[in-house]
Design brief:
heterodimer; A: 336 residues; alpha/beta; two-stranded antiparallel sheet; B: Rossmann fold; Rossmann fold; 2 domains; 7-stranded mixed sheet; 12 helices; 38% helix; globular; binds thiamine diphosphate; binds magnesium ion
C-alpha cells in the first residue's frame, strides 16, 4: 500500500467527501425524476462511487478522464461543480454545452474531461487517441478511460486496447464491472471468467480488483499512472462493483434482478466502508461525518436551486457551435 | 375494428411470423427477458421460447453481422438495434455485406434479414439517441427501407419485410409506439413500395414519412380551415419509392411540400424533389418546398429540441408559401 499511505488526513477526508457528494447528487436526482424539473433520465452511479473518486483523486488537471455512464464522481473530482452538472440535468443554459448536451457523459476540455459517448464503447478509441496525442507531444499526462462490462463487449474495446498496447500509450482502462449491461446479467453476455486477463492478449498488464474499496482503486490507478508516465504503456483495471439503482430510472432497482443481490452488495457499500476505516483510524468522528453530510446536502440544495433558477437556452442557441469558426481562405459557401 | 398500438402491432407481426416460419428469430440487446427498450417484444420470450428470441451482448456489429451470416445459411433473422443512432456500428454489416450479398453471389443467394431500428426525436434523448437515419442508408443499392406511420401499416409491412428475400431496414419512430389505430384481425400483408394517400386533396401534395405523416395530417386539417385542400401521401417506404403515386398527386395539385424529420440538407426530400422536377416539371405551379430539421445535431434541452423538430406549423407555413407563390 504505497500510494495510499502517503495520503494525508485532509486527502482522506476529501476523498470521503467526494463520494458522499456523488451519492447525494445521484440520490437527489433519482428522487426528483418524474416530479418535474429533472429533464435528463438519471443513470445513477450509487454503489460505484469508489471507482470514479479513487481513480481521479490525485490526477493532474491535464490528465484526461473519459467518462462512462456512471462517473458522476469523476466530474466532481476533476472540478466540474455540482451546480453545472445539476443545471445539465435540468437542461438549462448554465449546463454543459449551454443546454445542447446532457450531463452524465459531458465533456470539459479545460478541466481535462473528454466528452463521453451515448454510443456505449465508442469512447474507448477516442480515449486511446487522446493518449496517442500525449505520447506524440511528449507530455507525461495520462488518460483514465472509464467504461462498463457491457461496453467491453464492443469491437471498439478490442481495437482500442490493441492499439494502446501496440503504441504503448499512456492510458489506464478502468472497467467498471457492475455485473450488468442494462438488464442483461454478466452471465448472459460474457462466457469468459474475467476481463482483466484480456489485457495479456494485448501485451500489457490487467488486474481485477475490489471496486468498492477506494484504496484499492486509488493504489492501482496511481501505480498504472506512474507506469504510463514512464512510457511503459497501458494498464487494464477491472473494478468489481454493483449499481444499486437499475440501468436508468425507467425501471425500479429490483426489476430483472434478485433483491437479495442488491442487499448483499449494499453490505459492501464503498462509502460506509471508507467511513468505518477512517473512524477506526480516528480520522473521522461522528461529528465530522454529520458535518460533511450537512455540507454536502447544502451543496446539492444550492445546485438544485441554481438549476431551477437558471433559464432554458434561447432557441437560437440551437444553431451555435455546429462548426468551429473558419476563415474564408479555408472555407466558403452555404452549409444549409 | 379492433385498435392496437403501433408497439402491439409490431409485436403481433413478430409473433405471427415466428409462429408461421421456423426460420424466423429475434436477437438484440435486452429484447427477450426485458422485452426491449421500448417494450415492443414484451412477453414474446414466454410465448415463443429462448431459441426464437434471445438477448445478445452489447455488440451491434456482431448482432447485424451475425444476422447476415445466419440469413445466408437459410435463417430469417430479425435483428434489433435498440436506437437507430447505433446503426453506425452495424453500418459495415448493412452497407457492405447485407446489401451486396445477392449481387456478389451472382444471384445465387441473398441475405433476408430485417434490422429493426427505433428512430427519431422528441424524448429529450439528445444527439446520440434521437436521429433519423434513413438518408444515411438511402444511397445504398440493395437495401429496402421501410418507415411505417400507423399500427396497421407497421404490422403488414413488417410481415412483408420478414418474408422478402432481401435485407430490410425497418424504422420505427419512438413517438409512434403509443399511438393507436385500427388493425384488422388475422393475417395480412402490406406490400413494400406502395405509398398510401392518407388524406385526399387537390390543392397541394404533402409527401411525408414516419411520424411526420401525423404532423402533415394535422397541418392538412388546419389548412382545410383556410380553404387549402392538401393531399397527404405517406411514402411508407423510401426504397422502393412509389413515384407513380407522388407524380399522380402532383399532376393533380401542382404543388409539392416534402416533410421528414431528418435534416433538410442531404435528406431524402431532395430525391423526391428531383424525381418530381424531372418527371412532372410541367405540372408544377410553384417551386417545391422541403420541411425538415435544420443543419445541427439534435440538442438536448426542450427549448432547443422543440426548435429543432419539424412541426405542424412549419408545414402549414411551407404550404402557404407554395400555394401563395402560384397565386401571386
Ligand atoms: C452502442 C450502444 N449500444 C447500446 C446502447 C444502450 N445501452 C446503454 S447503456 C447499456 C449497457 C451498458 O452496460 P455497461 O457498459 O456495463 O455499463 P453500466 O450501465 O453497467 O454502467 C446499453 C446496452 C448504447 N447506448 N450504445
Ligand atoms: Mg455494467
Amino acid at each position: 500500500m504505497g500510494y495510499s499511505d502517503q495520503l494525508t488526513e485532509k486527502d482522506l477526508i476529501q476523498m470521503y467527501r467526494w463520494m458522499v457528494l456523488t451519492r447525494v447528487f445521484e440520490d437527489r436526482i433519482c428522487g426528483l425524476w418524474g416530479k418535474g424539473g429533472v429533464v435528463e433520465l438519471p443513470h445513477g452511479s450509487q454503489g460505484q462511487e469508489a471507482i470514479a473518486v479513487g481513480a481521479c483523486y490525485g490526477l493532474r488537471q491535464q490528465d484526461h478522464v473519459m467518462p462512462s455512464l456512471r462517473t458522476r464522481g469523476a466530474f466532481l473530482v476533476k472540478g466540474i461543480s455540482a451546480r453545472v452538472q445539476m443545471a445539465g440535468v435540468y437542461a438549462k443554459v448554465t449546463g454543459p454545452a449551454r443546454g445542447k448536451a446532457t450531463a452524465h457523459h459531458m465533456g470539459d476540455a479545460e478541466r481535462g474531461v473528454l466528452l463521453g459517448s451515448g454510443i456505449v464503447g465508442a469512447s474507448i478509441t477516442v480515449a486511446v487517441g487522446a493518449a496517442l496525442a500525449f505520447k506524440l507531444q511528449r507530455r507525461d499526462n495520462v488518460v483514465v478511460d472509464f467504461f462498463g462490462d457491457g461496453a467491453a463487449q464492443r469491437g471498439d474495446f478490442h481495437e482500442g486496447l490493441n492499439f494502446a498496447g501496440v503504441f504503448k500509450l499512456p492510458i489506464i482502462f478502468v472497467l467498471e464491472n457492475n455485473g450488468y449491461s442494462e438488464y442483461t446479467p454478466l452471465s448472459k453476455h460474457f462466457a469468459g471468467s474475467d476481463f482483466a486477463c484480456r489485457a495479456q492478449g494485448y501485451g500489457f498488464p490487467g488486474m481485477r480488483l475490489d471496486g468498492n474499496d477506494i484504496f484499492a482503486v486509488y493504489e492501482a490507478v496511481q501505480a498504472a499512472a506512474a507506469r504510463a508516465r514512464a512510457g511503459e504503456g497501458p494498464t487494464l483495471l477491472e473494478c468489481m462493483t454493483y449499481r444499486y439503482r437499475n440501468h436508468c430510472e425507467v425501471q425500479p432497482p429490483e426489476a430483472f434482478r434478485d433483491p437479495a443481490e442488491i442487499e448483499q452488495w449494499q453490505a459492501k457499500d464503498p462509502i460506509a466502508r471508507m467511513r468505518a476505516q477512517l473512524m477506526q483510524r480516528g480520522i473521522l468522528t461522528d461529528a465530522l461525518v454529520s458535518k460533511i453530510t450537512a455540507e454536502v446536502e447544502a451543496e446539492i440544495d444550492d445546485a438544485i436551486q441554481y438549476a431551477e433558477e437558471s433559464p432554458f437556452p434561447a432557441p437560437e442557441e440551437l444553431y451555435k457551435d455546429v462548426y468551429a469558426p473558419e476563415s474564408p481562405e479555408l472555407v466558403v459557401g452555404r452549409r444549409s | 375494428m379492433r385498435e392496437l398500438t403501433y408497439r402491439e402491432a409490431i409485436r403481433e407481426a413478430l409473433r405471427e411470423e415466428i409462429q408461421r416460419d421456423d426460420r424466423v428469430f429475434i436477437m438484440g440487446e435486452d429484447v427477450a427477458v426485458a422485452g426491449g427498450a421500448f417494450n415492443v417484444t414484451q412477453g414474446l420470450l414466454a410465448e415463443l421460447g429462448p431459441e426464437r428470441i434471445f438477448d445478445t451482448p452489447l455488440s451491434e456489429s456482431a448482432i447485424v453481422g451475425a444476422a447476415v451470416g445466419a440469413a445466408l445459411m437459410g435463417m430469417r433473422p430479425v435483428a434489433e438495434v435498440m436506437f437507430a443512432d447505433f446503426t453506425t456500428i452495424a453500418m459495415d454489416a448493412i452497407v457492405n455485406h447485407a446489401a451486396k450479398m445477392h449481387y456478389m453471389y451472382g444471384g445465387e443467394v441473398s441475405a433476408p434479414l430485417v434490422v429493426r431500428l427505433a428512430y427519431g426525436g422528441g424524448m429529450r434523448f439528445a444527439a446520440h439517441h434521437s436521429q433519423s437515419v434513413e438518408s444515411w442508408l438511402a444511397n445504398v443499392p440493395g437495401l429496402t427501407i421501410v418507415m411505417p406511420a400507423t399500427p396497421a401499416d407497421a404490422k403488414g409491412l413488417l410481415k412483408a419485410a420478414i418474408r422478402t428475400p432481401n435485407p430490410v431496414i425497418f424504422l420505427e419512430h419512438k413517438l409512434l409506439y403509443n399511438t393507436k389505430g385500427e388493425v384488422r384481425e388475422g393475417e395480412y400483408l402490406v406490400p413494400i413500395g406502395q405509398a398510401d394517400i392518407k388524406r385526399p386533396g387537390d390543392g397541394v401534395t404533402i409527401v411525408a414519412t414516419g411520424l411526420m405523416v401525423d404532423r402533415a395530417l394535422g397541418a392538412a386539417r388546419s389548412l382545410a380551415r383556410e380553404g387549402i385542400s392538401a393531399e397527404v401521401i405517406d411514402l411508407r417506404s423510401i426504397q422502393p419509392l412509389d413515384e407513380e403515386t407522388i407524380l399522380g398527386s402532383v399532376e393533380k395539385t401542382g404543388h409539392l411540400v416534402i416533410v421528414h424529420e431528418a435534416p433538410v440538407r442531404g435528406g431524402f426530400g431532395g430525391e423526391v424533389a428531383a424525381v418530381v422536377a424531372n418527371k412532372a416539371f410541367g405540372y408544377l405551379d410553384a417551386p417545391i418546398q422541403r420541411v425538415g430539421a435544420p443543419w445541427t445535431p439534435i440538442p438536448f434541452s426542450p427549448t432547443l429540441e422543440e426548435a429543432y423538430l419539424p412541426k405542424e406549423s412549419d408545414i402549414v407555413t411551407a404550404v402557404r408559401s407554395v400555394v401563395g407563390a402560384s397565386a401571386g
